[in-house]
Every structure is written in C-alpha cells, then in structure tokens.
Write a structure and sequence with these properties.
With about 250 residues, the chain is α/β, with parallel strands linked by helices. The protein is built from nine helices and 13 strands. It has one domain: Rossmann fold (3-Layer(aba) Sandwich), CATH 3.40.50. The chain is globular, with a radius of gyration of 17 Å.
Length: about 250
C-alpha cells in the first residue's frame, strides 16, 4: 500500500491535526505546548519509556538511536544510566548526529545529558557517516501510528525517515533494524495507513498501558531517494556527503 504521489498527502495533515486535537481535548498533552506541530509529549510518557526499556531487544542492545523528542527523554536517561550508547539526531539534522556514551558519563550529569541542550554539552557531534557506530535498535516518537501495518506519521518534516535512510546508506543499520515507537494509546490506530515511498514503518508500539507488535509490517525504503527531497534536506551536509560518495 504505497502512496508515491506526495501531492496526495493532505490526508496526513488532517490526521495529525485530529490526533493533536484529541490529545489536547482529553487533557493528555503536556509541556511543551501547544502540541500542534510537534511530536507530542503526553502524560504517561515516563511509564511508556520504562516499558520500552524493559523489552529484551532494548536490554540486549549496546547502541540505540533515540529521537530528541520530549516524550522520549526518560528512555534516553534510562539508557545512559545503563551504560548504553545513544545516537541522537540533532534538530533538523543541521549538525548531523550526537553520540552519547553512557559508560563515560558521570551519573550526576546523565539527567541533563538526556535533554537536547545537555546532549550538545556532553555528547560528540558527528557529521561523517563513518563516525556513526553500528546501531542495534531505533526508538522513535510519532504523532500517529497503525498497529496493523506499522506505518507512522511524524510531525511532517520528513526527518525521521531521512535519518533511517542516512544510517542505512552509511552501513550503521540494515533494513530490518528493530524500530520501536513510544506513544499514548490515543495515538494508535487499528486500521492500516497508506505508506508513502519514503515512510519507515515500525515493528513495536509501546504505550503507558500496552506493548503491541505490529500485525503485518510494510516494507521499508532502501535508502535516500534524492528526487523527493526538498532543497533544505538536500543541502544538509551529511546528505550531501552521502550522495556525493554514491
């Protein structure tokens, strides 16, 4: 179920707005607000993060790619406390990725290091693909996700999908890297979502109350698709580096 014509994507924005509105109406959304235009933070995010951290695949992982979104702060903190390495994309990928090695961080700074500002202070910024370690698991935020086929919608910038494509191209992951999304129950749909050619579906959905394996996950992209990137994405140093080295 692939939607290749990006002009048909207006339904995505309608769905995002519906979910953002629902979270606000039900009193689930929390700081930073308003949640519109964001990967929404929600009451119960800490509980969901703890559940995700207890998954066997996460406990076994040595290196985890975790998005910088607010609802994922607790799992970043937990992973660093456990001595794991986090690969975190910088906002809008302007500075590539930040590497945080929990083994080398004093416990007294780990809470701060789990924030975006703290990650810049205590982590190592990497732009070159060869400097990114092999990643065992992805943990991502979402606005909405289908438990039927694993298709998720982010906030609409395309950065999460591009991060996957970059890491795939530079050999830090393979197409079957386990991907977990942490969301509120209200963000989970029991119907399939159309997949655009660049969309990266997830394997597992963790909420404050449930852990769900996707029923039949859609296929994933095979790398960066230059023809669908806008000028801002094409101009990112790490993207230019990869495309030039193809």
């Amino acid at each position: 179920m692939v939607e290749s014509d990006m002009s048909k994507a207006s339904w995505k924005e309608e769905l995002r707005n519906k979910i953002w509105g629902l979270l606000e109406e039900r009193g689930v959304a929390k700081f930073p607000k308003p949640v519109y235009g964001r990967i929404p933070n929600f009451h119960g995010s800490e509980t969901a993060c703890i559940k995700a951290s207890l998954l066997d695949i996460v406990k076994r992982a040595k290196v985890v790619k975790v998005d910088p979104d607010s609802p994922l702060r607790e799992i970043r903190r937990i992973l660093l406390l456990k001595g794991k390495t986090i690969v975190m994309p910088t906002p809008r990928l302007r500075n590539g990725f930040i590497i945080l090695d929990g083994r080398n961080l004093p416990r007294s700074v780990i809470s701060e290091a789990s924030t975006i500002k703290g990650a810049f202070r205590y982590g190592k910024i990497v732009i070159k693909p060869q400097d990114i370690p092999r990643i065992d698991v992805f943990i991502v935020g979402s606005v909405v996700v289908s438990r039927v086929n694993g298709v998720r919608l982010g906030k609409g910038g395309g950065y999460s999908d591009l991060e996957y494509a970059i890491l795939l191209e530079c050999g830090s992951i393979n197409r079957e890297v386990p991907i977990i999304t942490v969301v509120h129950d209200l963000q989970v749909l029991d119907v399939p979502l159309k997949r655009s050619i660049h969309d990266v579906p997830v394997d597992t959905i963790v909420t404050p109350t449930r852990i769900m394996n996707v029923i039949e996950r859609e296929e994933r992209p095979i790398g960066i698709i230059p023809e669908i990137l806008n000028e801002e994405l094409k101009s990112l140093p790490i993207v230019k580096y990869i495309l030039k080295s193809r």
